[in-house]
Hints:
The complex is a heterodimer of chains A (192) and B (756). Chain A is of the alpha+beta class.
Amino acid sequence: xxxxxxxxxxxxxxxxxxxxxxxxxxxxxxxxxxxxxxxxxxxxxxxxxxxxxxxxxxxxxxxxxxxxxxxxxxxxxxxxxxxxxxxxxxxxxxxxxxxxxxxxxxxxxxxxxxxxxxxxxxxxxxxxxxxxxxxxxxxxxxxxxxxxxxxxxxxxxxxxxxxxxxxxxxxxxxxxxxxxxxxxxxxxxxxx
Amino acid sequence: xxxxxxxxxxxxxxxxxxxxxxxxxxxxxxxxxxxxxxxxxxxxxxxxxxxxxxxxxxxxxxxxxxxxxxxxxxxxxxxxxxxxxxxxxxxxxxxxxxxxxxxxxxxxxxxxxxxxxxxxxxxxxxxxxxxxxxxxxxxxxxxxxxxxxxxxxxxxxxxxxxxxxxxxxxxxxxxxxxxxxxxxxxxxxxxxxxxxxxxxxxxxxxxxxxxxxxxxxxxxxxxxxxxxxxxxxxxxxxxxxxxxxxxxxxxxxxxxxxxxxxxxxxxxxxxxxxxxxxxxxxxxxxxxxxxxxxxxxxxxxxxxxxxxxxxxxxxxxxxxxxxxxxxxxxxxxxxxxxxxxxxxxxxxxxxxxxxxxxxxxxxxxxxxxxxxxxxxxxxxxxxxxxxxxxxxxxxxxxxxxxxxxxxxxxxxxxxxxxxxxxxxxxxxxxxxxxxxxxxxxxxxxxxxxxxxxxxxxxxxxxxxxxxxxxxxxxxxxxxxxxxxxxxxxxxxxxxxxxxxxxxxxxxxxxxxxxxxxxxxxxxxxxxxxxxxxxxxxxxxxxxxxxxxxxxxxxxxxxxxxxxxxxxxxxxxxxxxxxxxxxxxxxxxxxxxxxxxxxxxxxxxxxxxxxxxxxxxxxxxxxxxxxxxxxxxxxxxxxxxxxxxxxxxxxxxxxxxxxxxxxxxxxxxxxxxxxxxxxxxxxxxxxxxxxxxxxxxxxxxxxxxxxxxxxxxxxxxxxxxxxxxxxxxxxxxxxxxxxxxxxxxxxxxxxxxxxxx
Lengths: 192, 756
């Protein structure tokens, strides 16, 4: 089984933490520190596998984010890389050219997507489409959209009007978008 | 009261903070606002507040005051509340918290909710972090959901069941009926999680394993369909259909086929098919191949299949992708024991990996290379490994050096080669060699009698070059001390003998004594070596001078040695040649080899190194300085006494006073047996009053021969700082004519000179 999944930036700031076994808070902080130190110290073209205590650590960098997955010794490392990639693809499909800012501002959604993909340290759904469909249906059930998307697009423009550029995690391409008044955004936000 | 600020607004605000202090201030302000909002039991914005709290928690700030709020959110009817509530529970409420159990009822209700997404939330939370109590309470609900026709819920219930089993293994039985037709599902999600559930059950219970063996044909069929089926957009990953499921099935097959001939045979074909047909251009194909190889190696596959597996690993080794090379090396390491010959075929590729730039790969390649060394390839392999030792990072050097020593010991084609190899390691990685290698090497050198001259010559030359590597210096000093005569007389046969004078040798050894690079241990070696040369060289005066200088050394260790050696020159000169003669061949023991040679402290307890009984006067493998203590005390004039004499067992005490410490009395017991049969398993134990300290050293033997044919001796050292009257209680145990005898006695008749 997988033991934990961490997402952190190149400066070592934590963006997501999922733990599949009960661990005291203090120890979680220590593990996060250890992981960020170990992974950020790796040379650029090294292999993606590390050993730490009795676990295998699989890490992969996507643009500015490091995905760090700890698996038990009998698990398949190469498949773990595929698990990380699948999660990134799911995020990308949901957010549309996902970038680190999306995950920062919509961290709870990143968790919801993760919880449709993994459960108890194992994969629960192998089909991308089904996971996406489930998330969209769940979103529809929400009594109000998450924090302020559709309320006042004009206001958002006042705050952040103009064109924004961000690096997409998957394709590392640039995207720009212009916000116009009256447009509806379901659950995305663009911000500096 | 204005509405609390939105989550994303808060995130935006906090990100504008320029310093840690500014951020802390913002967060404290917001936490205060959230706290008062919680106090007011504000239902509308509870969800927003908890979400903000979770963000602050991720930044590292405490959020425990939100735990109860999560429970309230879970109990709410609104889906958004539940979503955030369950997320908060998973982040803040693991089983170590007191309020954890309060969730149980809410989860139970939600497991029976009319909306499947609510049920999904409950299953997810239970499956991620349910405690044992919760699992016990809710296992029934999970089992019910495992039988539902709703595939969304079924797959979650399966993984939830896995979690329940992990937490409470006794509950495994109750899920058995539900597993009956899990594999006939078409839905891949359910199929995948079912395979995980079956795997978990088989791993935990041999009975379950036997029960599920009958599923092998069905699993083989499913796997076959996955491979043969055409493109399926829903599950396709780079041209392969549902690799996650394939790997999981392969793993279950591995568990089912292990040590079972029939099952293994049933899977042979499909394994061969997967191994040959899987596309290897992308990582995902290689992930499947990797799992296949692991399965082939673990079950009772036919030899053709095993060779195929090893060849796949061999191909992996040539892959450009580092991850794949790493995985190949790891797998080969696992299989090298069982399929040694097959792995040997890839030896040259493995050895090439020693030159890889990646640290993880280098380490694996090194471990594997050592595993592949055998009598046939030792020369070639050692050349590569020594080259690796020269050029590798410091983190590898210690392990590599140890590996080289081990391999050389096992497979050395000749003594000369062995010594050359050791020399090479000591000179290139001398400072990284482990401490226990020094005594092992010394023993090796001692036992290669015909190589002594060659060895000492090479070590001497190495010392001339470099005295910074302590293990090398220590071994060299020891050898020069022992074999200095061979060095000076130029007797080397193996190579051109060098011309060295006694003075040059002493110069080198004295250089070690004064050098800043030498550690105290090394200095001890050097001094002892110089001393030994007093019986091998003619320039005794020079040696006497050196030894007396160190009699006032600040280093207590050196001082003690020098003083004792001095005493040897003065009072016991007649014993010096016998004491310092050549070391005999040492037998390797199971515990530590001749570490006592290098124990510098006169107070160490020598372990029982030799099982041969050696009379105390001549050389044995006990610490050299300890020898002197024994001898120095022979004629100090304290009369011996009989401590015990009963049932044919007589124990005499003889006394020596330890020099320079007058508070230590050294007592040697001599046990003799006047009965007709040997006393075996003889153990002597002693205890003294609190103001004394006792040290009991190893006995010469534990068999006291019959009819006074010999004695068992053992040394007791008693520290008596307060100069009180010596008293002792002794306990004797031995076996005589098959029956065990035990006796206690008080010894009070110590002569006054022994403790005054």
